Amino acid sequence: MVDDILDNDTQKRLKHLIKRLPNLPGVYKMLGKNGDILYVGKAKSLKSRVNSYFAKTIDHPKTRALVARIHDIETIITRSETEALLLEQNLIKEHRPPYNVLLRDDKSYLYVFISADKPYPRLAFGRGKGNHQKGRFFGPFPSAHAAKETLVLMQKMFQMRQCSNTFFRARKRPCLEYQIKRCRAPCVGFVSPEEYNEDVNNTIRFLKGDSSDIHNALIEKMEAAAEALDFEKAVFYRDQLSMLREVQARQAVYTVQGEADVIAITSQAGITCVNVLTVRGGRVLGGKNYFPDVDSTLPLSENLSEFISSFYFQVTDDLPSEIILSHELPDQTAISEALAAHFDSKVVIKTSVREQRADWLDLAQLNANNALKTKLGDYLELNARFNALKDVLSGVTDRTIDRIECFDISHTMGEATIGSCVVFDQGGARKRDYRQYAIHGIQGGDDYAAMKQVLERRYKKQPLPDLLLIDGGKGQLNMAKEVLESFGILNDTLLIGVAKGEGRKAGLEVLHFIDHPPLDLPMDSKALHLIMNIRDEAHRFAITAHRKKRDKRRSSSVLEVIPGLGEKRRRDLLNHFGGIQQLLGASEQELCGVNGIGPVLAKTIYKVLHE
Fold first, then answer.
1. How far is CA 367 from the centre of its chain?
2. Which CATH number does the domain 2-95 belong to among 3.30.70.250, 3.40.50.10490, 3.90.550.10, 3.40.1440.10?
3. Quick check: do 2-95 and 260-376 share a fold?
4. Distance CA 229, CA 222 (A)
5. Minimal CA–CA distance to 257: which of 360, 113, 147?
C-alpha cells in the first residue's frame, strides 16, 4: 500500500500537487529530499501518468522503492508526446537518474545516413551516429517504425541502393530490387553516376524537409484514385502523407544547433511567473519556474527586466550566447552591455525569433502559463487568500466564507448567449460542480434577463453558497437580489457584484453590496486577487462554451468561418493532413507547410481550431 510507504505530510502534499497537474503531454522528474533527480519519465497525460505511481497497490519492488524516496515532483509541458520522448532522453543523458534504465551514447536514437561511397552512395539507417560508417547523417528520429517506412518510400521514389558494399561489388546481374522498381541497378551500370547523383540530391532534399514536390505528387495520386473510386489506393496515399509528416516533423526539444536561455513571463491575479528554459547544444535540458516578488501592476516588460538583472547577476554564473525573451525590455541595450561586461562574453538578446527558437519560446510560455495556473491553485496560497477575504469582509458579514460561486454571461452581439457558474472552496476550483447554461427566450444582448434566467435555474433547487459573486455592477447585483428574494433565500448568502474599474483595467475592480457602501480594495490585496481569479475563471468558462455554440451555429465546418481561407485552400489543407482530425493535431509550423498558407494565416487557422 502507498499509505505504508509515505508519511502523512508527504502524502497530503503530493496528492495536492498531482491534483493540480494538467492533462497534457510532457516530462516529469521525481525528486528526493535533497533535490536530487531520482527518475525522469514521459507522459501523454502528466496527471494520469504521475497519479498511477500512487495507486493503492504497487506490485513492482523497484517502483515501491522509488515512491518511498519521492519528496517532490517537477514537470515540463511539451506540445506532443514525441517532444516529450526526446526531452526525456535529453534529461536522462544529462542527469543519469538512478531509477532510469540508462542507455549508452546515442544508441537510443535512429539515424538515417547516405554513405560516402563513390560514385554510388548507399542509403541506410542505424542506431548510433557515425561510429562505424562515414557519410552524411540525418536525425535523430523519434519513431523507428516511421523512419524505416520512409526509407522504403524513398527507395520507391529515388531508387537509391540499400545493399551492403560487399553485396554491391559481387553482383553480376540486377537483383530483385531492380525488378520491383526499387533500385536502378548501379551495380551493373544500368544508371550513370550523373543520373544517380541526381537521385542522391533529391533524397537529401527530402531528408532536409524540402519535399513539397513529393507531397504534391502524393496528393495528386490520392485525388486521382478517389475520383476513380479506388478508395483503397486513396487511403494508401493518405497514409503515406501522414507518415511523411511524422518523420519530417521538426521537434522543438531536439535541434541541431543553438545555445540559449529562453525566458517567458506571465502574470495574473497579483502573481507573476517567469519560466527559464535552458538550451545547450541544441537540446532543451529542462526549465525552472520562478515567482519573483514584483509589482504586478507594472508592465510585464519592466518586471522581466528586473528579473533578468537579478537572475544573471545574483543567481547564475552561466551566460549563453543568446537570451530569447517573450517581451522586449525597456532597457534591453543597457542590460545586454552590462551582461557582456560582467561575464566578459558577448550575448545577444532577442525577442523576435523564428523556426526552432520560436518553438523554444512557445514551450517556455506554455510552461510559465501552466506554472502560474498551478500556483493560483496552491493550497497555502489559497488559504492565505481566503483568510484575507475573511478579514476584508469582517465589517460586512460574520459569515464563514468557504464555498464561493461566481456567474458570468457571454455572447457576441446577442448571439449564442451562454451563462456560466464556477465553484471554488478552500481546496481550489471544484470543476465537477461547474455548470454552463444555454439561454433561451430572451431578447439578444439582454444581460440582465440572461442573468435572471441562470440564477433562477441554478437556485430553484440548488442550495446557496457562502458567497455569491456576480460579474457586473449595481444593475446585475439588483437583478440577482430580485431572484433570491423571489425564492425567499436572500439572507442565506452574501451577494457581491464585481464591477470593472476605471478603463476596465485589471486590479481596479470595485465590490458592490446590497446594504453596504462599495469597497475599493488595493491592487496588492490577496482578497482582491482571489475574487479576480474566480471572476476570470467564470469568464473563461462562459466564453469557451459560447464560442463552440456560435461556431457550430454559423457553419457545419469550422474551416468555413476562417477569413482568407477559400474553398481551394480548405481542400488543400484536408488533402495535406488527410482529414479534419489530423488537421486539429497540426502545429502552426506544420500548417505553414501547406501550399498557400503563410505564417499569418497559419496562426489564424490554429487559433480558430483551438479556441
1. 8
2. 3.40.1440.10
3. no
4. 11
5. 360
Q: What pLDDT is stored for residue 60 in this prediction?
A: 66
Burial of 46 (0-12, 13-18, 19+ CB in 10 A): buried
Quote the CA–CA distance of 507 and 600 in Å, as a whole number: 33
Residue 564 DSSP label: T
Q: All 3 cell numbers of residue 195?
A: 543520373
259, containing H or E segment: none
- In 19-43, which positions are buried (b, 16+ CB within 10 angstroms) versus exposed (e)? ebbbebbbbbbbbbeeeebbbbbbb
CB 345 within 8 A of CB 243: no
Give the chain's end-to-end CA distance (angstroms, integer).
42
**Running DSSP on this structure, what letter comes out for residue 254?**
B
> Would you state the pLDDT for residue 553?
56
What is the homologous superfamily of the domain 260-376 according to CATH? Ribonuclease H-like superfamily/Ribonuclease H (3.30.420.10)
Helices 212-227 and 567-577 pack at an angle, to 10 degrees, of 100
Q: Which residue has the cell 520507391?
A: 156
- In angstroms, the CA 367 to CA 134 distance is 40
DSSP secondary structure letters along 322-345: EEEESS--TTHHHHHHHHHHHHTS
- In DSSP terms, 262 is beta-bridged to 277, 324
* Mean residue pLDDT across the chain: 81
Q: What is the pLDDT of residue 494?
A: 92
Q: Does domain 379-552 have CATH number 3.40.50.720?
A: no
Among all chains, which residue has been given the C-alpha cell 537521385? 199
Q: Give residue-wise pLDDT tens across range 261-311.
A: 999 999 887 788 999 998 877 777 778 888 887 777 778 998 898 888 888
**Which residue in the block uniquely carries the three cell numbers 509515505?**
6
Instruction: Taking the CA atoms of 535, 540, 541 and 542 in sequence, report the sign of the dihedral they define.
Output: positive
d(CA 436, CA 539): 11
Q: For position 96, what pLDDT does the model report? A: 83
Tell me, what DSSP letter sits at residue 493? S
What is the Cα–Cα distance from 241 to 253, expressed in whole angstroms?
Answer: 24
Q: Model confidence at 132, in pLDDT bands (50, 70, 90)?
A: low
> Cβ of 439: how many Cβ atoms within 10 Å?
24
Total Cβ atoms within 10 A of residue 127 = 16
Which has the closest alpha carbon to 439: 409, 413, 475? 409
Cell 509541458 found at? 77
Tens digit of pLDDT for each residue in 384-426? Answer: 888 999 998 988 888 888 899 999 988 877 777 889 999 998 8
Extract the C-alpha cell encoding 494.
Answer: 452574501
